[in-house]
């Protein structure tokens, strides 16, 4: 594990509010492309037809992402319902991580990336001038593929974010909880670790270095750390792909539980996992297109698109 990956969240939290490299107003001048067998209009109809109960937490419209000349995401539109699990699946390189990173403007950090289109969080455009990226990423937290706890104690991993945001120093948290600051930290640490199903395993070793935990425990700590800043949305990019089957199943159970209180968007290359844990599934295919989006059961059992059926039945990947 490198120093760089360990500090990713810290850097993320410390990101300035500059909006360099983003072009949301101007058109791209690119002609609309039509893919083999399906026009974009046909696939768009399917997305519009996907109706879900409850409110949309995130609404993505005509999202294009370019890395230099590489057109990585092509006019993606989808609405993500709140308090549910949305799985993003598709072959390697189809743009799943790119899409996920657009949801809390993590692509702003990639110099070559250019983003065109709209992403609204509860109706409010996140790609507009004046959006506070620290605040945005507090509301839309992220968990990465490899566990990346800070080389600090378990307790400090949890309190780091709220401290960074000034919520502890200002007494915001204590005020909120009606407690002293020290008690507020204790409460926060316990609450976050319980939410991440890790409390029972670590409650007697909160001052131990987090790097001494197993991989699966480290990943649950990273989830607890993300929850500690009280997010509304949790983005997870293949959070179990580096873990053994038992640790994976704990993360899957956890994701399921978290959807009661949070909007979870999870990338997985594991189709069985997507089928097990998600309420709705979005299938991206090579070329950066969203080809199908709907209720998970429908997408897996009776997909509208032949290309998706071929992908799901393993005819290509
Ligand atoms: N930081 C980057 N710089 C340049 N190209 C990138 C970068 N990240 C991803 N890409 C390109 O964008 C496309 C989609 O990548 P990615 O979103 O990582 O796909 P996935 O997560 O589905 O494997 C790929 O062609 C990849 O090479
Ligand atoms: Mg990826």
- What low-confidence regions span 5 or more consecutive residues with pLDDT below 50? 1-48
Question: Judging by the overall fold, what is the CATH architecture?
Answer: 3-Layer(aba) Sandwich
Number of strands: 10
What number of structural domains do the residues give? 1
Helix content: 25-40%
Q: Kindly report the average pLDDT value.
A: 84
- From N to C, what is the helix and strand string? HHHEEEHEEHEHHHHHEHEHEEHH
> Quick one: CATH superfamily?
P-loop containing nucleotide triphosphate hydrolases
What small ligands are held by the chains?
adenosine-5'-diphosphate, magnesium ion
CATH topology: Rossmann fold
Rg over CA atoms, rounded to whole Å, is 20 Å
How are the strands of the largest sheet arranged?
Answer: 6-7-8-3-9-10
Q: Would you state the CATH class? A: Alpha Beta
Helices, by number, come to 14
Outline type: globular
The major sheet is characterized as: 6 strands, mixed
What is the first-to-last residue Cα distance? 29 Å
| Structure class | alpha/beta
Portion in beta strands: 15-25%
Report what the structure shows:
By secondary structure, the chain is of the alpha/beta class. It has one domain (about 5-15, about 40-310): Rossmann fold. The protein contains 14 helices and 10 strands. The protein has helices at about 5, 10-15, 40-50, 95-100, 135-140, 155-165, 170-175, 180-195, 200, 215-230, 245-260, 270-275, 295-300, 305-310, and strands at about 55-65, 70-80, 85-90, 115-120, 125, 140-145, 235, 265, 280-285, 290-295. Strands 6-7-8-3-9-10 form a 6-stranded mixed beta sheet, sandwiched between helices. It has a 4-stranded antiparallel beta sheet with strand order 2-1-4-5, sandwiched between helices. Strand 9 and strand 10 form a beta hairpin. Helix 6 (about 155-165) runs parallel beside helix 10, helix 8 (about 180-195) crosses helix 10 (about 215-230) and helix 10 (about 215-230) runs parallel beside helix 11. Residues about 1-50 have low confidence and may be disordered. Adenosine-5'-diphosphate (ADP) binds near residues 67, 93, 94 and 110. It comes from Haloferax mucosum ATCC BAA-1512. GO terms for molecular function: ATP binding; ATP hydrolysis activity; phosphate transmembrane transporter activity. One of its GO terms (biological process) is phosphate ion transmembrane transport. This is Phosphate ABC transporter ATP-binding protein. Pfam families: ABC_tran.
